[in-house]
Design goal:
The chain is an all-beta fold. It contains no helices and 16 strands. It folds into 3 domains: about 60 residues, SH3 type barrels, CATH 2.30.30.30; about 60 residues, Nucleic acid-binding proteins (OB fold (Dihydrolipoamide Acetyltransferase, E2P), Beta Barrel); about 60 residues, OB fold (Dihydrolipoamide Acetyltransferase, E2P) (Beta Barrel), CATH 2.40.50.140. Strand 10 and strand 11 form a beta hairpin. It is flat, with a radius of gyration of 21 Å.
Length: about 190
C-alpha cells in the first residue's frame, strides 16, 4: 500500500484488479479542505487511460515491477519476440498489446522492459532513434517550394515525412513519440 500523496510519475498501481502506470500527477492544495492529487493512469496491457482524483492520505495498492533488458528479435505478424538478456529466455508478446510499436523497434536492439509478475507492462523505446532510409522517392527537379516534403520508409517499415533532400541509404533521426523527422544523421 502507498499513500496517494507519495505516487510519482512512473509508479505502478493496481486499480480495479488491473495494473496501471502513472503517466502524470498533479498535486492540488486548495485553500480550504484537504490536499488531493489528480492522476492520469495508463494500462499498459489494454492501452486504457484513466483519470483519478484522490485525497493525499488515501491508500492505493502499488505493485512491484521489475525492469529487465530484453533484446527484440523479430515479429511474426501476431507476436513480438524478445529474449531476456539475463536468462536468455524467449518471450512472445501479442502485437495488439503494443500496436504503435510495430515499426519503432529495430531487430537485435535491446530495450528496457517493465514486468509485473510474468506480464510485460511496458517497452521503453528511446525518445529519439536513428533509422536507415530503405525507400525514398526521388525529388522532382524544380520542386523547391518552401518546406517541400515527401514520405520515406525506414528499415523497420515506418513511414516518415521528411524534407525532399533526404535520399535512400541515408540515416535520419526520428521522434518516436510523434513519429516525426528531426534531422539527417551523418554517420
Amino acid at each position: 500500500m502507498i499513500k496517494a500523496g507519495q505516487i510519482d510519475k512512473g509508479t505502478a498501481l493496481l486499480i480495479k484488479g488491473q495494473p496501471f502506470i502513472c503517466v502524470d500527477r498533479e498535486f492540488v492544495s486548495p485553500g480550504k479542505g484537504s490536499a488531493f492529487v489528480r492522476l492520469k493512469l495508463k494500462s499498459p496491457s489494454t492501452g486504457q487511460s484513466l483519470s483519478e482524483t484522490m485525497k493525499t492520505q488515501d491508500n492505493v495498492d502499488d505493485i512491484m515491477v521489475q525492469d529487465r533488458d530484453s533484446q527484440y528479435l523479430y515479429n511474426d505478424g501476431e507476436n513480438f519476440h524478445f529474449m531476456l538478456t539475463d536468462t536468455f529466455d524467449q518471450i512472445e508478446v501479442p502485437m495488439a498489446t503494443f500496436p504503435d510499436y510495430e515499426f519503432l523497434m529495430k531487430d537485435g536492439e535491446t530495450y528496457r522492459c517493465t514486468f509485473w509478475e510474468s506480464q510485460l507492462l511496458e517497452i521503453q523505446i528511446p525518445p529519439k532513434v536513428v533509422y536507415f532510409v530503405a525507400e525514398a522517392e526521388e525529388a522532382v527537379k524544380g520542386d523547391t517550394v518552401q518546406g517541400a516534403t515527401k514520405y520515406v520508409t525506414t528499415e523497420t517499415g515506418l513511414k516518415v515525412r521528411v524534407p525532399i533532400f533526404i535520399k535512400q541509404g541515408e540515416k535520419i533521426r526520428v521522434n518516436t513519440e510523434t513519429k516525426e523527422y528531426l534531422e539527417r544523421v551523418n554517420n
